[in-house]
Amino acid sequence: MAYLLQQLANALPLAALYAALAFGYSIAFAVTKRADITYGAIFAFSGHVYLIFAHFGWNQLWLIFPAALGLGAAAALAGGLGAGVIAGRFVMRPLARISPNAVIVASLGVLMVLMEGARLAANTRELWLPPFLNNPLVFWRGDGFPVTLTLIQLINVAAMLMMITSGYLVLANTRWGRVWRAVADDPLAAELSGTNSSLVFVISYVAAALYASVCGVLATSHYGTMDFGAGLLFGLKVVLIAAAGGHSNPLRSAAGAAVIGFAETLWSGYGPIVWRDLFIVSVLVGVLVISRRERAIP
After folding, report:
1. How much is the mean pLDDT over the chain?
2. What is the pTM of this model?
């Protein structure tokens, strides 16, 4: 019983990360209508920038550790948002108007630029953060087996849930949310009604980049590093996990992604881990093919 509770506790941070990433991705997908692995690249790029500037602040500027982390986080958010603005405004929006399927190809190009840029900036060195806020908090103890999570895990879960909640409230209760839904449903009709669909497209892309950037900082703080290949891995993974709840609805997409996070962790705890990714990806591909909601996409 205690082992199961520990596995469920271990699943919380991963489920929250997948849910927040899927929520942000759905905001952009609603206007692009195409699979876009740039989102995963921005996630990983932000993590790399966070590491680079945190190390710079600590080793070169001699900042105290919290200040170095703050410098890294600020640089990561600025870099992620900048990448989102440039990719959304100058790459994805023109292509979405002319040839929507080209968005898929262009996203691979943007991913390569971001990942290679991060690798060169780090001199191909894998940087690590020292452990922090890693004191275990015991929630339950049975037969000498404590069920624990660290403080950084709990902070990450709370932050990601706040991101999803605030994003949902904005989309459901504000004028921008209504405009976003109008452009997502029919950009031409929205234009005829006086809406600047190009501006909504770019803002949606930047909002998604903000979610990816914050998640990149939080995930890197938890794991201590960010792999150079994480951009492609998470780019493909987010496209698939977002399909679990349906790309078109951010909240359902987040809920489906959270379920995948729990399933992935439970498989790691009880099944052969070598088959975990094959099983999860196979299920996600099946869900995407069988119950795809965007059948009317041209």
Report:
1. 89
2. 0.93
